[in-house]
Design goal:
Helix content is 58%, strand content 5%. The chain has helices at residues 40-62, 66-81, 88-104, 108-118, 124-135, 150-158, 162-181, 208-221, 226-244; strands at 9-10, 18-22, 33-37. A three-stranded antiparallel beta sheet has the order 1-2-3, with helices on one face.
């Protein structure tokens, strides 16, 4: 095998016949490379660039302790075994971004408290319901909001009846949207869940003549039942009006 001198040499190859051998530590792929150029000048220019890179590499390497060099080598082994297409620098930058987001985030329980403090207009009934929503997820109480995924929520939500599931998801959605607006989390986990589609039954309408017969029968045979029937009829009429509106 030709020694790696970073000196171009001519090959019998047609066209791009000038060759330059590149060692692993200077290669873009992390593996030994052989590059071909059309002219000697192009090959020599590439060689000078690599020589400068080698000099910088040597200077940088002298700043690292043997322990850090060994640790970096172990990290590269992990990346190679995982067949990752990310560079070591990209992985470190991504991790630092996550740590920064986590340090700026708030816990699940604290997020509820901050939301309620910010929404002074919320009724006592709604505050009570939000408190029940928070209590339904005790394992998430101290977990940072930025680390919560839909997989943390789904097991508990799955056990609920459709109406209750949807109500709890609406409460959680309000909380996470508030946190996302404050940049305490990047992704609202509720966006990755589905509300249950509830099919409402058709309202049965009782004819006025039938209601009249029921009231007359109660008047004649069971007067104690009459107030209940009147109130029930009145309530049904109010509900129908609300639906029309």
């Amino acid at each position: 095998m030709r020694p790696l001198t970073l000196k171009p040499y001519k090959t019998p190859r047609e066209g791009a016949s000038w060759c330059l051998d590149i060692p692993e530590y200077l290669s873009e792929t992390g593996k030994r490379q052989r590059k071909f150029f059309g002219t000697q000048k192009e090959a020599e220019t590439a060689a000078e660039i690599l020589k400068a890179r080698r000099a910088n590499f040597g200077n940088t390497l002298s700043l690292l302790s043997p322990e850090r060099i060994t640790e970096a080598a172990e990290v590269y082994k992990l990346l190679d075994s995982a067949e990752s297409h990310f560079s070591l620098l990209e992985v470190v930058k991504s991790h630092l971004r996550q740590e920064k987001a986590r340090s700026a985030s708030r816990s699940f329980a604290h997020l509820f408290d901050l939301y309620l403090a910010d929404r002074s207009e919320i009724s006592e009934e709604h505050r009570y319901k939000l408190g029940k929503t928070k209590e339904r997820f005790p394992k998430l109480r101290n977990k940072m909001a930025c680390d919560i995924t839909y997989e943390d929520l789904e097991p508990t939500l799955h056990k609920l009846k459709p109406h209750m599931r949807n109500a709890e998801m609406r409460n959680l959605n309000s909380i996470f949207r508030f946190g996302r607006k404050r940049r305490w989390l990047e992704i609202n986990p509720i966006d990755q869940l589905s509300f249950v589609k509830i099919h409402r039954k058709e309202v049965e309408t009782i004819a006025a003549s039938t209601v009249e017969k029921i009231l007359l029968d109660s008047l004649q045979n069971d007067r104690e039942l009459l107030p209940f029937l009147v109130l029930a009829r009145f309530q049904n009429k109010r509900t129908s009006i609300y639906r029309l509106e």
